[in-house]
Design goal:
The protein is an alpha/beta fold and 449 residues long. It contains 14 helices and 19 strands. Strands 7, 8, 9, 10, 11, 12, 13, 14, 15, 16, 17, 18 and 19 form a 13-stranded mixed beta sheet that branches. The radius of gyration is 25 Å and the shape is elongated. Bound molecules: NADP nicotinamide-adenine-dinucleotide phosphate. The site of NADP nicotinamide-adenine-dinucleotide phosphate (NAP) has 25 residues, from helix 1.
Length: 449
């Protein structure tokens, strides 16, 4: 079969792979070893005909000889013996230029590149539409977990209200070790690095950048909205202290780094979307609280469907290659049928500012341990309309730590509270603010946040 549909339904669909690292290498070995099985299951025979890497001299796979390898990615995209292009290089350039080139040549493309999709996804989707080809990216969000297809196909008729995900395995591993073994952040991170879950420079994970890119893609899919990584409010896990986790346990919560995308109003043509990444206290009976170690999960709330959760491996060579392979089979089917899958253009969207978030909050304040201090602190909360749900005091020598959980309050009000508290003479330190998920038990409305 050829890119124009050819006559022979048994002919292989020829795949050009850009990148042969963790994911590319796994994909090529799965296809080199298992193409017969894939063909038997799907009716599509996939054959990797060309592979581009940066350094061709480096040994990769026993099956990968110089007949298929090149350092010239452009030559793979243009090769008439390539029907479908898979981009597994990462980063924005040259990935973006190569994919545009492939689509303009009428070739469907598959990518696992979250950075690319979260920054220029809409531009690439428009290019795919103009060219009449598929641009598929199931692996870009949560590795092996199917999310793009469930949201855009199985739930195509559903009005999605909110998607909350644990989409970064590194931070979930660190938080799980802190939670289950009582160790500090530094020790847990060092272990993640030793085990290969965290990079030597872990900032993309621990500062929430990786999760923010995924949150933008999730918001785009869930609300058919044009959301980019820069729209996502972002906080990482670096300020989390073991004592925060201890308090969370006492109060019935686990601390998780969540990516949250919410419908916040507007219309289908111009949705208002709230999208953020931050550590959160998740009630222990919530399905996301039980997601341990480097696993990922995405919890979807739909108007008619109710709650759904997808769980699995969010990264790793073979899990991610499995999602890429699913896209490849889809793209090959569509190519053979002479068309492309459904992909509606994204609507221009409005992003709700974080100041307008309404939720409950956990906050610690270290104060001088003397009479009158607690009253002064409570007055500041009250002055900004932040009502206290619970307060605990722990002695710290001459100081005391006050641990608050608030009722549902406006983000702008809690931030104003923090700013004023920091100015009080008796306040030594304001700790990490952690947003609290779940119902506000004592609120008049009892509403969930
Ligand atoms: N790893 C995961 O678990 C995972 C999970 C989900 C999504 N992803 C995404 O999948 C993509 C690939 O990730 P990875 O972990 O496989 O990366 P990787 O191990 O760093 O591999 C990147 C590959 O791209 C090649 N490359 C880089 N620049 C190139 C260029 N200009 N021309 C040709 N080849 C070039 C590299 O060649 P050399 O080998 O010669 O340097 C290498 O083979 C990224 O977008 C990543 O975000 C990865």
């Amino acid at each position: 079969m050829t890119a124009d549909g050819g006559d022979d339904p048994q002919a292989p669909v020829r795949v050009g792979v850009l990148g042969c690292g963790t994911v590319g290498g796994a994909l090529i070995s799965i296809l080199d070893e298992g193409a017969d099985e894939v063909a038997a299951r799907t009716g599509i025979r996939l054959e990797v005909t060309r592979v581009a890497v940066r350094n061709v001299a480096r040994y990769r796979l026993p099956t990968l000889g110089s007949d298929r390898l090149t350092h010239d990615a452009h030559s793979v995209v243009c090769d008439p013996d390539v029907d479908v292009v898979v981009e597994l290089i990462g980063g924005i350039e040259p990935a973006r230029t190569l994919l545009v080139e492939a689509m303009r040549a009428g070739k469907p493309v598959v990518s696992a590149n979250k950075e690319l999709l979260a920054n220029v996804g809409n531009e690439l989707l428009a290019e795919a539409e103009r060219a009449g080809v598929d641009l598929l990216y199931e692996a870009a969000v949560a590795g092996a977990i199917p999310l793009v297809r469930p949201l855009t196909e199985s739930l195509a008729g559903e009005r999605i209200l909110r998607v909350m995900g644990i989409v970064n395995g590194t931070t979930n591993f660190v938080l799980t070790r802190m939670s289950e073994d009582g160790i500090g952040y530094g020790e847990a991170l060092a272990e993640a690095q030793r085990l290969g879950y965290a990079e030597r420079d872990p900032s993309a994970d621990v500062e929430g950048y990786d999760a923010a890119a995924k949150a933008a893609i999730i918001a785009g899919i869930a609300f058919n909205a044009d959301v980019v990584a820069g729209d996502v409010y972002r906080e990482g896990i670096t300020g989390i202290d073991p004592s925060d986790i201890e308090f969370a346990h006492r109060l019935g919560y686990e601390v998780k780094l969540l990516a949250v995308a919410e419908r916040a109003g507007g219309s289908a043509a111009r949705p208002v979307v709230a999208v953020r990444v931050h550590p959160a206290m998740v009630p222990r009976d919530h399905p996301l609280a039980g997601v341990r170690g480097s696993y990922n999960a995405v919890f979807i709330e739909g108007e008619a469907s109710g709650e759904l959760m997808l769980y699995g491996r969010g990264a790793g060579g073979r899990p991610t290659a499995s999602a890429v392979l699913g896209d490849l089979v889809d793209a090959a089917h569509n190519l053979r049928a002479g068309g492309r899958g459904r992909a509606a253009p994204r609507a221009r969207s409005e992003i709700r500012p974080i100041d307008e978030l309404e939720t409950q909050y956990y906050l610690t304040i270290d104060v001088e341990d003397r009479p009158g201090v607690l009253a002064a602190v409570a007055t500041v909360f009250g002055g900004h309309r932040v009502s206290i749900r619970s307060m605990e005091q722990v002695g710290l020598g001459g100081e005391a730590r006050l641990v608050f959980i608030t009722h549902t309050a406006l983000e702008a009000d809690i931030q104003a509270t923090i700013s004023e508290l920091a100015l009080l003479e008796s306040v030594e330190r304001v700790g990490k603010l952690i947003r609290v998920i779940g119902p506000d038990p004592d609120a008049a409305s009892g509403r969930a946040t």
